Amino acid sequence: MSTYEDRLKALRTQLVRVHLDGFVVPLTDEHMSEYVGAYAQRLAWLTGFHGSAGSAVVLPEEAAIFVDGRYTLQVREQVDAAHWHYESVPQTSVAAWLGVHAPEGGRIGYDPWLHTRAWAKAASEALAERGAALVAVDSNPIDAVWPDRPAPSEARLVVHDDRYAGQNAAEKRQAMADWLTARKADAVVLSALDSIAWTFNIRGKDVARTPVALAYAVVHADATADLYVAPEKIDEALVQHLGNAVRVHPRADFGDALKAFSGKAVAADPERAVAAIFDALEAGGAKVLPLRDPAVLPKAVKNSVEIAGHKAAQARDGAALTRFLHWIATEAPGGGIDELSAAARLEAFRKDTGLLEDLSFDTISGAGPNGAVVHYRVEEKTNRRIEPGSFYLVDSGGQYRDGTTDVTRTIAVGRPSEEMKHRFTLVLKGHIALGRAQFPAGTRGSQLDVLARQFLWAEGLDYAHGTGHGVGSFLSVHEGPQRIATFGGGDEPLQPGMILSNEPGYYKTGEYGIRIENLVLVERRKVPGAEREMLGFETLTFAPIDRNAIAVELLTAEERQWIDAYHAKVIEIVGPQLEGDALAWLQAACAPL
User: Fold this and answer.
1) Is the peptide bond before 481 cis (omega within 30 degrees of 0)?
2) How many Cβ atoms from other residues are within 10 Å of residue 379's Cβ?
3) Based on the number of CB atoms within 10 Å of its own CB, is 52 exposed (0-12), middle (13-18) or buried (19 or more)?
4) What is the average pLDDT value for the chain, to the nearest integer?
5) The dihedral sign for the CA sequence 315, 316, 322, 325
6) For residues 128 and 49, what is the distance between their CA atoms, to the nearest angstrom?
7) Within its chain, how far is the Cα of 493 from the centroid?
8) What is the pLDDT of residue 199?
9) β-strand 22-26 against 55-58: which pairing, if any?
10) Contact call for residues 585 and 567 (beta carbons, < 8 A)
11) Interatomic CA distance for residues 43 and 111, integer angstroms
């Protein structure tokens, strides 16, 4: 299995053994997670693709890998075109591709613990056009040919203290019980790892960069719950924290437990619970209610304690990032810094806070043309020096007990070209327009997305990713349901307390990338004479935006005022945490335009 070609051949041989004519390989786990543990990295093992979203299909004579616009360049660098077709999402889909390429009358396998029912329905319908069938497998054929597949993490769960959570777990379960009673339901299945972490005020270390634990849960209408987690992950402190109302079982017992709800009404989320969960409930005689996970919205709408914690984390993180920006400004013009050393230095500044639990994702450290790869992941073979006359894009964040951060800065090293400054300023104008937006309650992120793109669109430019994603509270750096995008989401009404990113960008393939990202908080706005409840954004992230990359003449007076006010706030919040040369640099970097 030393080459990806060998792995593809081994999988095809295994498919013949189990009488399948193809198999679908998603990048997820049995919890429909975006970021997954090493044991679930089947797509990466098979193909070499290391992005955070994608799928593949393997047929007897051909194979295809499906990625969205964020990974158009990356997939071509990591996956061999001699063995794989590259397919773009949402222009096509796995189901649509199967409807054209699956063998007539073939049997295409899928793992029901890795797909939703809606996906299985769409794939089945597409395959029916070719007289082919979608077949659920009892065991994943990749696992049979992956000789050194890592075991799931055995890390202990930890208590997420109420001083960070702002609400105790018993209160959360009671609210969930009230939700069940209102819907005449007996129980709800929770399978999303961040929902379980939030509901029980627990955290874990089972997924890199995301503080969650591999577990399932069932919450009942009497506010008791069953938590399914590997026994070695629980200690006495966790038992005491969970209390008598939470029964703990081995995680391996979850599947069988779902079959014990005969005659009961059980809620499960069709977007977050895999097909196997619905199948097991129905096999046991339960009436399944396809309802959204009741933790999703209250988790997204942060309480006052979570908001205060997030602001503290942002101030701390902003100072660490500012120290890094000062370091880059001092060292990079000499040409001695590369992407890996810069990422390591930034992590060191965050660790110096003494409160960093982990990064919130692998740092995107992209110099020059690597910055044009939207979700670039630096490694030894791609590592570039940060050269004078270039843009350096760094997208990074930290996990702190009191908050999760995510921030992107694009840095002009030396003198940028007029084109680079022009396009940086178009992105900046979009960032400002979204940050200044005022909108009525009920507005969806999809309605705001154009604000960030308008100046790029006016010149025939765009970017192939969403403008904003939700962010958790010491949880996932990508949290739903809120989103600012015109595709792939953005239909959730924004509510006060939601935290999102504001991150327009521009990417010129082979030359440079630009992205400016702050996190923002949805807040109520008092508008004299308003006939509707009005909302807006409070900026939460504070670190300098590179003045050397701005074409000031392209900014309106109001935009210049926004930048100057923002930089004044950066000095107010970050300045007291700095001293000496770093403080002097900050004051110059935040001087009025």
Assistant:
1) yes
2) 11
3) middle
4) 97
5) negative
6) 30
7) 19
8) 98
9) antiparallel
10) no
11) 13
Cβ contacts of residue 402 below 8 Å, gap of 6+?
164, 309, 310, 312, 313, 474
Strand ranges (E), 282-430 = 287-290, 356-359, 364-367, 390-396, 398-400, 403-404, 407-413
CA 568, CA 558: separation in Å to the nearest integer?
A: 15
3-state secondary structure of 488: coil
Structural domain boundaries in the chain: 4-145, 158-296, 301-589
The token duo for 148 is: 């050194």
DSSP 8-state symbol, 365:
E
Task: Tell me the β-bridge partners of 367.
Answer: 392
Phi-psi domain of 488 (left: phi exceeds 0; alpha: psi -120 through 50; beta: other): left
Q: What whole-number distance in Å separates Cα of residue 306 and Cα of residue 300?
A: 11
Provide the CA 57 distance to its chain's centre, in angstroms: 23
Pick from 28, 22, 183, 32: which is nearest to 108 by CA?
A: 22
Q: Which CATH class is domain 301-589?
A: alpha beta
Cα 295 to Cα 283: distance, rounded to the nearest angstrom: 26
Fold topology of 4-145: Creatine Amidinohydrolase; Chain A, domain 1 (3.40.350)
**Token representation of residue 172:** 């959360």
CA distance 272 to 96: 22
Return the percent helix, strand and coil in the chain, to nearest 5: 40, 20, 40
What's 158-296's CATH class?
alpha beta
Distance separating alpha carbons of residues 303 and 171, to the nearest angstrom:
13
The continuous run of DSSP H or E covering 515 comes out as strand 512-515
- Separation CA 121–CA 340 (nearest Å): 44
Convert the pLDDT of each residue in 559-582 to its tens digit: 999 999 999 999 999 999 999 999
Residues 153 and 36: their CA atoms lie apart, in Å, by 11
Query: Binning pLDDT at 50, 70 and 90, where does residue 250 land?
Result: very high
pLDDT at 234: 96
Contacts of 91 (CB under 8 A, 6+ apart): none
> What span, in angstroms and rounded, lies between the C-alpha atoms of 68 and 588?
40
* Angstrom distance (rounded) from CA 147 to CA 169: 41
Per-residue tokens: 125: 């319908």
Residue 226, H or E segment: strand 225-228
pLDDT score, position 280: 97
